[in-house]
UniProtKB/TrEMBL annotation:
Residues 55-149 form the Beta-ketoacyl synthase-like N-terminal domain. One of its GO terms (molecular function) is acyltransferase activity. InterPro entries: Ketoacyl_synth_N (IPR014030), Thiolase-like (IPR016039). Pfam families: Ketoacyl-synt_2. This is Beta-ketoacyl synthase, N-terminal domain.
């Protein structure tokens, strides 16, 4: 079985500034970018949400580099003998923002985070296909994100996948 694309979104699009801040996440544009692109994709399919209970929608977050800005901040703070703020322990794990998206939209399927070694989209699609095939999810929100090396938000794509035939 292969998954059909039910909705797709990108950030940034023409006219986009930085993504809006997300309460509980600091310093970095990684979490705001994930939330912004996921919201854009899910709104394209479901309006303002949340989805009804029992939707079995998984979240698959794929990023080779993760949250570069937060990692750099923590590294520099520790090297300077400083104290790392407690929010960095929470947001240093990509599952935290994936879980935030799931809670915000009522997605009640599994949450999976991947750091691809090959083609990020192909690896993310393969994981989503596996979740659908195994019956762990009825649909999957695939979020592909890479933060720019300078710590600016970067680019992201979100794809909502469901049962059907991929084109």
């Amino acid at each position: 079985m292969t998954a059909a694309v039910l909705a797709e979104a990108r950030w940034p699009e023409a006219g986009d500034g930085p993504p809006p801040a997300v309460p509980g996440f600091v310093h970095s544009g990684f979490a705001p970018l994930v939330v912004a692109v996921a919201d854009r994709c899910l709104r394209a399919r479901y309006g303002d949400g949340p989805l009804p209970a029992g939707n079995r929608t998984a979240v698959v977050l794929v990023s080779a580099s993760g949250d570069r800005a937060s990692a750099g901040h923590v590294r520099a703070t520790v090297a300077a003998g400083g104290r790392v703020g407690p929010l960095f322990f929470f947001q240093s794990v990509p599952n935290s923002v994936a879980g935030h998206v799931a809670a915000r939209w009522g997605l009640d399927g599994p949450v999976v985070c991947l750091s691809p070694t090959g083609d990020p989209r192909a690896e993310g699609m393969a994981e989503a296909d596996l979740l659908l095939y195994d019956g762990d999810a009825a649909q999957a929100l695939l979020v592909l994100i890479e933060q720019a090396p300078d710590g600016t938000p970067g680019e992201a794509t979100a794809v909502l996948l469901g049962e059907g035939t991929r084109q």
